[in-house]
Amino acid sequence: MKVVLIDVDNTLLDFKLCSFHSMRSACEDFSIPFEKGMFDAFYRINTGLWHEIEKGDLTVEKLFEIRWNVIFKELGVKGVDGVEFEKDFHKYLNVSAVKVEGADDALDYLSKKYEVCVASNAPARQQQERMRRAGLDKYISRYFISEELKASKPDKEFFDKAFSTLNISPNEAVMLGDSPTADVAGAKAYGLKTVFFDAENAGNIAGADFVIKKLVEIKTVL
Ligand SMILES: [Mg+2]
After folding, report:
1. CB 67 within 8 A of CB 82
2. What are the structural domains of the chain?
3. Is the separation of the CB atoms in 193 and 171 below 8 Å?
4. CA 11 to ligand 1 centroid distance, Å
5. CA 109–ligand 1 middle distance (angstroms)
6. For the chain, which has fewer Cβ within 10 Å, the N-terminal or C-terminal residue?
7. Per-residue pLDDT reduced to its tens digit, 5-51
8. Are 159 and 170 in contact, with CB atoms under 8 Å apart?
9. pLDDT at position 65 over 90
10. C-alpha of residue 78 to centroid of ligand 1, in Å
11. What's the CA-to-centroid distance between 31 and ligand 1, angstroms?
12. How far is the CA of 157 from the centre of ligand 1 (A)?
């Protein structure tokens, strides 16, 4: 094993907390009274939209166009331009860097044994900036980001492009992430070993080679 590919959101950075704080701040800017239930609606709708991206039914650009209009429609919030809100939300999200427990320790351990690369479906500058602010950038040798590769996990093309840069064969790499579809299924189909970060206790629904429930457990499998 030479290379560890690692997901960012909900694997290294706590997307739930990052997006909660970003949504609350943007609501303040737009004078929208914010309550926790609104975030739950965001999280559910947003997760569904990212699954559509994984299936190839939606693009990231299109998600940014429609996301908040869909959410505000469901919440009954009127008179807010979802595209403008998205820009404001992103202003906060781009600099949000709440870490998942054990992220430093896990990356410190992995980076001493393997080359560690990020593999993420997201805007490129946003992920690098958030990793830098979290102090995790120093462990990462390369970033494979869907926006730059013009392909998303779990597509074969995403891995084709990553491996053409890495110059190793897929069985010399392992993918670690929290998404059964984007992280585990795609990597497994491409011939990588897989580690499912099952923080939400879903069970090994994707048939990963290893399952961990806390990041620190990575030391027992890699
Ligand atoms: Mg993730």
Report:
1. yes
2. 3-14+98-221 (3.40.50.1000), 15-93 (1.10.150.240)
3. yes
4. 6
5. 20
6. N
7. 999 999 999 999 999 999 999 999 999 999 989 999 999 999 999 88
8. yes
9. yes
10. 31
11. 30
12. 19
